[in-house]
Amino acid sequence: MIVMKDVYKTYPNGVTAINGISVNIDQGEFVYIVGPSGAGKSTFIKLMYREEKPTKGTIIVNNKNLSELKEKEIPYLRRDIGVVFQDFKLLPKLTVYENVAFALEVIEEPPRNIRKRVMEVLDIVGLKNKARSAPSELSGGEQQRAAIARAIVNRPKILIADEPTGNLDPETSMVIMDTLETINSSGTTILMATHSKSIVNAMKKRVIAIENGIIARDEQRGEYGYEV
Ligand SMILES: Nc1ncnc2c1ncn2[C@@H]1O[C@H](COP(=O)(O)OP(=O)(O)OP(=O)(O)O)[C@@H](O)[C@H]1O
Prior knowledge:
With 228 residues, the protein is α/β, with parallel strands linked by helices. It has 7 helices and 10 strands. The longest helix has 16 residues, at 170-185. The mean pLDDT is 95. Bound molecules: adenosine-5'-triphosphate. It is a peripheral membrane protein. Belongs to the ABC transporter superfamily. InterPro entries: AAA+_ATPase, ABC_transporter-like_ATP-bd, ABC_transporter-like_CS, ABC_transpr_LolD-like, Cell_div_FtsE, P-loop_NTPase.
């Protein structure tokens, strides 16, 4: 599903964020990416959806070798990968429904399928009753659930979440985790970078710890492992 082999990433300013990583992630896994600030977690994640290119090494996602991917093929890779961020990134002038539908409109899904599928995913994330609301009318947790709905609406095989609970209180974070668990249980691979010790320790999933650009730890049913 995701294979990295001897991957390095040095940014143009000379900072080496990833310093030799090899890893395999299988379909259906739920993986936490942990590590100190600046350790390389976001870079690791960005390499997977080709937001960044490796300086050296091989990355294969859904049988696509990202080094050989042409610019015009990137949108096709992104159809297999949903991405969620700490700051939600919803379009403020659109309703919740429109934000989610937009993701299908851009890939030219037939209009008759769009309504059904959007309502389906809003149901999965528990936001059916907020379909007509603007993002500004939602709580932080609801906004994140809308962003998750948008990320999964075209049934990606992988959902990547970079600190999705970073702006949320602990209770709201647990609702987000329940939502992600539901999505994972239907077979979607989930990669989540987080600084939340309580979430990682509660969930008992695979934990990959990145320190100074390398994998310092990779454990099944792992723990957060740092003091906070
Ligand atoms: N676009 C960029 N250009 C130059 N250097 C960068 C860029 N993005 C990240 N870096 C540097 O690469 C290193 C790793 O950054 P990265 O964002 O991957 O870490 P992180 O583990 O996600 O950190 P945090 O937990 O604080 O979000 C840091 O030293 C950072 O300053």
